[in-house]
Design brief:
The chain is an alpha+beta fold. 25% of the residues lie in helices and 31% in strands. The relative contact order is 0.16.
Length: 289
């Protein structure tokens, strides 16, 4: 599944690998009260972000951004053939959904100039690599893979203590193939793409801003997982390493979206995923595009 959106001299395409019920809302958000959920349920249902059992529906997707000069893949989803025993729907997966979605968007693995990872969690690095004669090889052979230095150093340290499978099968093989650039917070690609430090979900999480001279679109990675967090920006999921920092970062990001008028492109919002953020009381809302 893919969807395409044009804004000025950019083209944005969604590459959807899965869109499924994921976790019960109050399991995913420990601070979500029954009253908060009751107040939000109807709007979440309208956004197709929750089912009748109060399970949140998440999309797992990449974005392909075409500037006048480059084709960039933002986050690389879940991947195939990866041992993920904690997630049965991801474990040793062998379907062709992702590659078919790329093809339907008119994109081949050879077309990607840069792969940019907002962070190095399992569902954002999976297609970095593919099995090739029993070894992990970069899936996008012509691309430079961009990893933030803070994030890379964090997972290097974690992996030294105990193996982190997504790091060993989807990040280190790219480094060993000499396709990775470990970059600082001031990294940019030409005059259209720049990274924004957005710590909290992970220590080195980054967002990505695109647009010449201004923010045309902002890719938030896991700053938000559900539209529920638009209404309650301080609501952090159990996956955030530093929930308080994540909440501060999330509100700053949403303010930036409002002030710039940029498209907001979260990693996990259900289709259509992309919208323009508006202020709504002490929180925000989204006008889907």
């Amino acid at each position: 599944m893919s969807a395409t959106l044009s804004v000025n001299d950019l083209t944005i395409q969604r590459i959807v690998e899965q869109e499924v019920p994921f976790l019960a809302a109050r399991e995913m958000f420990p601070d979500l009260t029954p009253d908060m959920l009751d107040e939000s349920r109807e709007s979440l249902k309208q956004a197709k972000a929750i089912d009748d059992r109060d399970t949140l529906i998440l999309c797992f997707q990449s974005y392909v951004v075409k500037t006048p000069h480059h084709t960039i893949l933002i986050d690389s989803c879940i991947g195939n053939d990866k041992p993920r025993p904690g997630r049965p729907a991801w474990n040793m997966k062998t379907d062709d959904t992702y590659m078919r979605a790329l093809a339907s968007a008119g994109v081949s693995v050879n077309d990607i100039d840069f792969v940019m990872c907002t962070h190095l969690h399992v569902d954002h690095v999976g297609w970095n690599t593919r099995l090739d004669n029993g070894r992990w090889a970069p899936s996008f052979p012509n691309a430079r893979y961009i990893f933030g230095a803070h994030e890379y150093d964090h997972w290097t340290a974690q992996n030294a203590k105990a193996e982190v499978p997504p790091f060993t099968d989807s990040v280190l093989p790219v480094v060993e193939a000499a396709r990775a650039d470990i970059v600082g917070d001031d990294f940019a690609i030409g005059d259209h793409v720049r990274i924004l430090p957005t710590p909290g979900h992970t220590p080195g999480h980054v967002a990505i801003a695109v647009g010449k001279g201004r923010d045309e679109a902002l890719f938030g990675g896991d700053l938000m997982h559900s539209p529920l967090q638009l209404r309650y920006p301080e609501l952090s999921p159990k996956f955030d390493v530093d929930p308080r920092q994540a909440a501060t970062t999330r509100r700053q990001f949403l303010e930036r979206c409002c002030d710039s008028g940029a498209l907001c492109c979260p990693a996990h919002f259900p289709s259509p995923s992309i919208g323009r953020i508006r202020r709504n009381g002490n929180g925000f809302s989204c006008e889907w595009v």
